[in-house]
Inverse folding.
């Protein structure tokens, strides 16, 4: 019987695309765009595990993104530590904050949770902005040097593409393992009906905290990559708007699916570029598309594509996640 | 000095209360968090400035602005939010996010990102009482807010339309069974909420520069105020606003100006943790 984890032609195709893309597309601007798509993919996966699978909608992901990024940047600049040392430390620090926000979050649901996470996000941003002694305040942190991998210095968008792709692929593999495991099923149970989940013995507190920690870890990784890629970070990159973008990418791409966040990240990062000819009005169209997409594809683009492909009878074996989360249509969280 | 701070707190608090009522109405009625409400506030400021710039008399321009934004509210309910059938929290959230992006970027495209000045509605000369100097603006905003809240109370509790809107909010099915046009009440709820946003915008604009981003922070404070008072409860919103305003003013004076917002948010988290039903503590039918 074919193990769902075996490498099939779709994996090979994706990996080949990842290897060839920076060779085919030399344009630095586009490569930087792809790199941002990669970073947002990680952020969106993090959000998706927390919100799409566990049902804890958070508009504060920018906080984890920022904490991870700043932790890594501060350690790197102050102690001259390499990315491979600061990355795990930053992830751990951010996970601790994940637990901190999880504790009040355990008590609230639905829109109250959204507002709680907004508050958390804003508190984090304001602290990053005002604790000048630690974070240099609005000036931000400069001078983050290019990382090295096995002796290669990662100093060009092309090389970052490979680095980031590696992380994204790793992120997807981990996501798959989580979703298809006992933890994943517990998350989904919590999303669908907390009371019923508790009745069958799922420890709500424990799993919710885990969900927050996983989400924090993904966001922290994205933050670290971002810091080292751009070489400079400031509180401006971690505003409420970022949390909104992350949420949008995950939902529009396919809420509660494995690849949805990637699709969403691609779609919502490419869209503004397509609309660039419209100059000032391009973001207006972006907003319009956002609204229209949510009307036409309420389950997200991924599910919409699947429906379309089924309609046209294309027998490509689309990798639908085995754990039935795409037939659970309910998004009711209150 | 203390009195001055309290007064400032009450002033901002009154505006927060108006914003809070606006978002609470929509939340109660349709279960959605309208994050675009802040941009409604911003939109009204810009429309007002434009109308004034066209030479329309000041108070006429304000009234036209409120009407225009009211219509905008009706429009967005009928053509956008209604299409989503109000069944998916996340999709509604995305729709409001989309709306917010459209409004904010549309404003930048139409009016530019530069801050603009808004003329004072109330007179500039301070009133001197007992050696304290009070700006007419402070009194004016508080009075306008109280007046509006009073009108809303009368509307919602004494008029047939208001009562049916409350009924439709609390129990749409039951309301429609007794013949209330729930669709129409939702339609009007959006319109009234937006109109309240417009008034909040007009009151807010003279104090701060008018920029396309001005709505973002205010709407978060409005949500905070709504929660502090007990979200889903119009009276709670009316109380939460001044409470938030005073907490902010006190924090800015006695703790730190930079961390003023942090403290307000921490209080919010505290309220959510210890008393999720807000200071008013009304029991709701759903588990929080």
């Amino acid at each position: 019987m074919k193990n769902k984890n075996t490498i099939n032609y779709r994996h090979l195709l994706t990996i080949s695309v990842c290897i060839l893309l920076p060779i085919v597309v030399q344009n630095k601007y586009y490569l930087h765009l792809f790199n941002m798509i990669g970073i947002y993919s990680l952020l969106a996966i993090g959000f998706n595990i927390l919100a799409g699978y566990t049902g804890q909608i958070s508009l504060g992901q920018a906080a984890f993104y920022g904490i991870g990024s700043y932790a890594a940047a501060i350690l790197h600049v102050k102690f001259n530590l390499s990315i491979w040392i600061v990355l795990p430390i930053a992830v751990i620090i951010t996970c601790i904050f994940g637990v901190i926000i999880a504790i009040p979050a355990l008590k609230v649901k639905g829109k109250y949770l959204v507002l709680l996470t907004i508050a958390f996000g804003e508190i984090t941003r304001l602290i990053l902005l005002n604790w000048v002694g630690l974070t240099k305040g609005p000036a931000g942190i400069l001078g983050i040097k290019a990382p090295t991998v096995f002796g290669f210095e990662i100093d060009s968008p092309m090389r970052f593409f490979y680095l980031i792709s590696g992380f994204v692929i790793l992120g997807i593999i981990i996501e798959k393992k989580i979703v298809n495991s006992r933890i994943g099923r517990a998350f989904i149970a919590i999303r669908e009906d907390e009371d019923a989940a508790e009745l069958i013995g799922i420890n709500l507190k424990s799993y919710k905290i885990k969900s927050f920690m996983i989400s924090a870890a993904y966001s922290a990784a994205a933050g670290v990559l971002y810091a080292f890629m751009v070489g400079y970070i400031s509180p401006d990159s971690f505003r409420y708007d970022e949390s909104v973008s992350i949420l949008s990418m995950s939902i529009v791409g396919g809420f509660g699916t494995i690849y949805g966040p990637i699709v969403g990240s691609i779609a919502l990062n490419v869209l503004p570029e397509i609309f660039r000819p419209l100059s000032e009005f391009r973001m207006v169209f972006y907003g319009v598309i956002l609204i229209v997409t949510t009307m036409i594809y309420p389950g997200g683009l991924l599910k919409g594509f699947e429906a379309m492909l089924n309609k046209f009878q294309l027998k490509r074996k689309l990798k639908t996640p085995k754990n039935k989360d795409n037939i659970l249509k309910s998004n009711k969280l209150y | 000095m203390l009195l001055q701070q309290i007064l400032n707190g009450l002033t901002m608090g009154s505006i927060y209360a108006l914003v809070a009522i606006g978002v609470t109405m929509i939340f109660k009625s349709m279960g959605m968090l309208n994050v675009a409400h802040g941009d409604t506030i911003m939109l009204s400021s810009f429309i007002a400035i434009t109308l004034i710039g066209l030479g329309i008399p000041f108070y006429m321009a304000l009234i036209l602005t409120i009407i225009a934004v009211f219509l905008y509210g009706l429009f967005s309910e009928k053509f956008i939010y209604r299409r989503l059938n109000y069944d998916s929290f996340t999709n509604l959230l995305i729709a409001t996010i989309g709306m917010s992006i459209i409004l904010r970027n549309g404003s930048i495209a139409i009016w530019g990102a530069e801050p603009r000045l808004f003329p004072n509605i109330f007179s500039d000369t301070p009133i001197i009482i007992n050696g304290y100097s009070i700006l007419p603006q402070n009194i004016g905003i508080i009075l306008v807010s109280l007046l509006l809240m009073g009108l809303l109370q009368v509307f919602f509790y004494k008029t047939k339309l208001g009562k049916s809107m409350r009924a439709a909010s609390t129990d749409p099915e039951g309301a429609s069974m007794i013949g209330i046009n729930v669709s129409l009440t939702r339609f009007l709820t959006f319109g009234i909420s937006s109109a309240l946003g417009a008034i909040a915008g007009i009151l807010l604009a003279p104090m701060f520069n008018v920029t396309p981003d001005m709505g973002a922070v205010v709407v978060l404070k409005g949500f905070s105020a709504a929660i502090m008072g007990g979200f889903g409860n119009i009276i709670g919103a009316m109380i939460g606003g001044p409470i938030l305003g005073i907490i902010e003013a006190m924090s800015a004076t006695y703790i730190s100006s930079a961390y003023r917002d942090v403290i307000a948010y921490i209080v919010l988290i505290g309220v959510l943790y210890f008393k999720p039903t807000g200071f008013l503590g009304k029991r709701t039918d759903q588990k929080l």
User: Anything to note?
Assistant: Chain B has a mean pLDDT of 86. DSSP finds eleven helices and two strands in chain B. The CA atoms of residues 2 and 250 of chain B lie 9 Å apart.
